C-alpha cells in the first residue's frame, strides 16, 4: 500500500489544467487566471489629487500664505488652466493636478474666505499627490498565470478596462453514490435504509474546490446499474464515487470500472480514515473511488481529490500548505498509518493551538462538522505529547 504522500503524488502526476475560457469580469471572482496580465498603461494614468483641497505651488507656501483662488478642478472635468504664480485651484480627490502645481492642501488644513485661501503652515512639495504610474507602470507584469482572482485583482483588471478575463475552465465532476441501502432526500428511509448524504456533501466540496458538480444519483449494488451510471460519469472531466471499494461481496465498483477501461493506479492507502480509497484514470479522466463512510469520504476528498481539482483549475500550488499548531492535549495512535485527526483550532500567544474536536470514530460525523482542521499524524509515530507541534490542514479560509 502507498503512503499518504505517495498516493497524492501519483494523483497529481496524472492531472493537468483544463483548457481556458473567457468570462465576464463580474463572474471571474474565485476563478484562476489563465495567462499573465501586463499593464496596458500607467496606473494612475495622470498625476491626481489624493485629497479634496487646494492645488498650489509649494514655493508659494514656504510660510503662512494667502492665495487667490484661480479656478475649480473637478474629478472627471476638463483640465484646468495653468495656475499663475501665487494662485491656487480648488480641487477634488482624483482630479488631474493643474499645470504648475506640485502640492495639495486639504480643506481641513486651510481657510477659504472672500475668494482667497489662507494656508497657515509651510507646504511640502508633492504632498497629497498620486503620481502617474506610481501604482503600476505600462508594460509591468501585474498578475501571473495561475493567480486566483480575488476582489483586489478584479479591481486591477477593471482599472485597465478589461471587461473579460481569461480563466481556466472549471472541471465538471460527476458524483455517484453506490449501495442498496441508500435512498434519496425526500424519500422515507424505512428500516435498514439511510439517506444519500455523500452525494450532497461531495457536491458542496466540489464547489468549494472550484468545480461544477454533476449528481448521478444512486447506483445499486449490481453490475448493470453500476455500468450505466459509471459510463455516464466518465463523460465528465472527473468521476468521484463513494462506497463499493472495499473487499465485500457487493463491492463491485472497481471491477466495473476495470471493465469500462479505467486503469487502476492504486487501491488502498496507509491512512486512517479512508484506507480503501482507489484512484484510476480513463485516458485523461481521473477517477476517484472513495469510501462510503461520510467522514472517510469527506476527508479523503480533502486530501486527495481537492488537490487534483485545484491543479485542473490552474492553481500552481494545488496542495494546501499545512500550518503548525500546538497540541492542547496528548494524542495516541496505532503505528503504520497516517492518521487524520479532526481538531478545533484556537489562536494562542505563540500561534495556533489544536485540540481534538471530539470522538474520532469514523461513524461520528458531528466531530468533522465541528472541526476547523485536520491534524496530520505521521504513520510511524504513536504518541504525541501536549505542547508538541503538528501539521494541520485548515478546512476553511485558505487557498
Describe the structure.
The mean pLDDT is 94. The chain has a 6-stranded mixed beta sheet, with no helix packed on it. It is an alpha/beta fold and 399 residues long. The chain has 4 domains: 157 residues, Molybdenum Cofactor Biosythetic Enzyme, Chain A, CATH 3.40.980.10; 43 residues, Molybdopterin biosynthesis moea protein, domain 2 (Alpha-Beta Complex); 83 residues, Molybdopterin biosynthesis moea protein, domain 3 (Molybdopterin biosynthesis moeA protein, domain 3, Beta Complex); 72 residues, MoeA, C-terminal, domain IV (Beta-clip). The protein contains 7 helices and 28 strands. The longest helix is centred in the C-terminal third of the chain and has 19 residues. The chain is 18% helix and 32% strand.
Secondary-structure map with pairings?
Blueprint: H1 4-13, E1 20-24, E2 37-38, E3 48-49, E4 53-56, E5 65-73, E6 88-91, E7 103-106, E8 111-113, E9 116-119, E10 129-130, E11 141-143, H2 151-159, E12 164-168, E13 172-178, E14 182-183, E15 194-195, H3 198-208, E16 212-219, H4 223-233, E17 238-242, H5 253-259, E18 263-267, E19 271-272, E20 278-282, E21 285-290, H6 294-312, E22 323-327, E23 331-332, E24 338-348, E25 351-356, H7 365-370, E26 373-377, E27 383-384, E28 389-394
Parallel strand pairs: 5-6, 13-16, 13-17, 14-15, 17-21, 19-24, 22-25
Antiparallel strand pairs: 1-12, 2-11, 3-10, 4-6, 4-7, 5-9, 8-9, 18-20, 20-21, 22-28, 23-27, 24-25, 24-26, 26-28
Helix pairs in contact: 1-6, 3-6
